[in-house]
Design brief:
By secondary structure, this protein is an alpha/beta fold.
Length: 194
């Protein structure tokens, strides 16, 4: 029960501050630790719904945000451009591309889960790889990449691959993540465009 009351704390706080989900505090903690954006930066938010990350980046960080998700956002802001669709599809990517390059590409996307840890982790890694493929095309030199992933072990090899393109690659588990969750965030700093 203690776990849930802690989670309720984050959800209640998000609601009080006008954000649609508790996940906004994961982003806030990461940005306090790693200054990934500055005012006026362009950010691509993949797997954006319900829109907490996008709203925080637009409102608090004063960034111009392109938000993409299969679902409609629950928020709106003059500095958020919403593109509804599947970012793994070429037609959707063609709509995103003219908006770049981006100083930060962030993905909070999660796969539909089955309850089978092996399957869910494999799907999570595949989704992060797709987000990274987009980031490779659209990140500006010196930009940053951040993505949610499920922990299983296979992600270490992927993080090592990212290390060939970024100055630093970190694994971060913010406090607002549910205790029972297997998720964490990959934070890759300073893209060296090849």
């Amino acid at each position: 029960m203690a776990k849930r009351s802690q989670n309720d704390h984050w959800a209640a706080l998000a609601k009080k501050q006008g954000y649609p989900a508790r996940s906004v505090f994961k982003l806030e903690e990461i940005l306090q630790k790693y200054p990934l954006v500055k005012s006026g930066d362009k950010v691509l938010d993949l797997g954006a719904a319900p829109g907490g990350f996008s709203l925080y980046l637009a409102k608090k960080c004063q960034c111009d945000v392109v938000s993409c998700d299969l679902k409609k956002l629950e928020i709106s802001h003059p500095h958020i451009l919403e593109i509804q669709g599947d970012f793994t599809q070429k037609a959707v990517l063609e709509r995103i591309q003219p908006c770049g390059p981006f100083a930060l590409v962030v993905s909070d996307a999660a796969p539909s889960t089955t309850g089978d840890r092996l399957t869910d982790c494999a799907r999570s890694l595949a989704l992060v790889r797709q987000a990274w493929a987009i980031a490779q095309k659209l990140l500006s030199n010196g930009g940053h990449f951040m993505a949610k992933i499920f922990e299983h072990g296979d992600e270490r090899e992927f993080m090592a691959q990212l290390g060939q393109y970024f100055h630093q690659v970190k694994a971060v588990r913010p406090k607002a993540i549910r205790n029972e969750s297997m998720e964490f965030y990959i934070v890759a700093l300073q893209y060296n465009k090849k």
